[in-house]
Amino acid sequence: MSSSTIEQLQQDLHPPLTRHEALVESDRCYFCYDAPCVTSCPTGIDIPLFIRQISTDNPKGSARTIFNENILGGMCARVCPTETLCEQACVRNTAEDNPVRIGELQRYSTDHLMQTGKQPYTRAAETGRKVAVVGAGPAGLACAHRLALYGHDVVIFDAMPKSGGLNEYGIAAYKTVQDYAQAEVQYIVSIGGISIKHSQVLGVDISLDQLKDQYDAVFLGLGLGAVNQASVEGQDLEGVVDAVDVIRELRQSDDLTTLDKGRRTIVIGGGMTAVDAAVQTKMLGAEEVTLVYRRGVDRMNASMFEQDLAKVNGVMIRTWLQPKKILGDDGRVTGMEFSYMHDADGQYVSTGETLHIECDRVLMAIGQQFVAGDTNDAIELANGRIQVDEQKRTSDKHIWAGGDCIAGGDDLTVAAVQDGKLAAESIHATLQE
């Protein structure tokens, strides 16, 4: 692997705006009174206000406006699909104009304040109440920060050796360079009153009953602990791996030259994980990377920006192909056979034709699933995930939940942050009672 390849993987997808660029871009905002961008933001950030504060050269005040609603605003500025959320709703987003670059402006402000190392908040007097948070991902961190702000003591239990959850282990390296996920965790816990215990697996090292006995409230931000399994012949062949494992390995590697990239790689899936895995594999030096999805591009979960990013980096996207069989020789992947599919009056059916693509590596990115574990008998589930009300309270009055583990969630970092924030408000109100 060349040094230029390593540099490409470590290069920022969106270089930060300079002060001049931020001032010019902020001046493009119309500062709408009833701004559609605000209603499109899952955390409800007052976007016109924080952009106006940038335009008056007040990035610290702008950052506080953002952090008031989203304490992980820095990460969300990097990884949120702004092109389908706030920027899509921007009134400047027309055929003749481009939307205000809200995500990059948000990053400009949050980076400015975080680089000072100073919290914009003063923690309230200690209440003597203790809350357990399971999971140090976006939902858990957002919940912990809001509770600590109100003066409660919070202990976070996380199964992994590092905090951050998806932000640390599941996002492409080029989206969060310079160990940003860990820097953000440290910034969040610097408010005080938060301690984190790593390598603590719910149902193994700790139990819900223990947490309920020892703490005044419990928040579950468990994320998705397992990947969906494809019912495809040959999936046990050497060279077939889960895309989430590939991203995790790359994010935690100290030597990218040791990573297996394959020569010809096929990625199965149509979401953000599939694109992240495909692009990084191509950056690592694979000769051919083909992303295969069983429906049309309009049904892919990955946004058009992500799809274009894949194409720009040399990834071929092929649609309407259903995996039929993974081919192999001597226990090793040699190719895949697909069935051509089409939409027949709303029915997803095969045309009867097949396609063979040679490869030596297959990455499966067909979604993840929640592992109920210790929660299975304790709280009510719906469609395999935890059932919560509008305040993120579960069927157990002592337990709240948020993030990817709850039913009806959006599986987005920003949505998980909102869940954690809402749960914290509900927990605080309950503890005051």
Which features characterize this protein?
FAD/NAD(P)-binding domain, five-stranded parallel β-sheet, 433 residues, single chain, 34% helix, 3 domains
Describe the structure.
Helix 9 (138-149) links the parallel strand 1 and strand 2. It is built from 16 helices and 17 strands. The protein is globular and about 65 Å long. It has helices at 3-9, 19-26, 36-39, 47-55, 59-69, 73-79, 86-89, 102-114, 138-149, 166-169, 180-189, 208-214, 243-252, 272-284, 304-312, 413-432; strands spanning 130-134, 153-157, 194-197, 217-220, 226-227, 240-242, 264-268, 288-292, 316-318, 321-329, 332-344, 347-358, 361-364, 368-369, 381-382, 385-386, 399-401. The chain has three domains: 15-114, Fumarate Reductase Iron-sulfur Protein, Chain B, domain 2; 130-225 and 370-432, FAD/NAD(P)-binding domain, CATH 3.50.50.60; 228-367, 3-Layer(bba) Sandwich (FAD/NAD(P)-binding domain). Helix 4 runs antiparallel to helix 5 (59-69).
Number of helices: 16
User: What class do helices, strands and sheet pairing give?
Assistant: alpha/beta
Assembly level: single chain
What is the alpha-carbon Rg in Å?
Answer: 22 Å
The averaged pLDDT comes out at 92
CATH topology of the largest domain: FAD/NAD(P)-binding domain
Shape estimate: globular
**Which residues sit in consecutive blocks of at least 5 with pLDDT less than 50?**
none
* Total domain units: 3
Provide a brief overview of the structure.
The protein has helices at about 5-10, 20-25, 35-40, 45-55, 60-70, 75-80, 85-90, 100-115, 140-150, 165-170, 180-190, 210-215, 245-250, 270-285, 305-310, 415-430; strands spanning about 130-135, 155, 195, 215-220, 225, 240, 265-270, 290, 315-320, 320-330, 330-345, 345-360, 360-365, 370, 380, 385, 400. The protein has 16 helices and 17 strands.
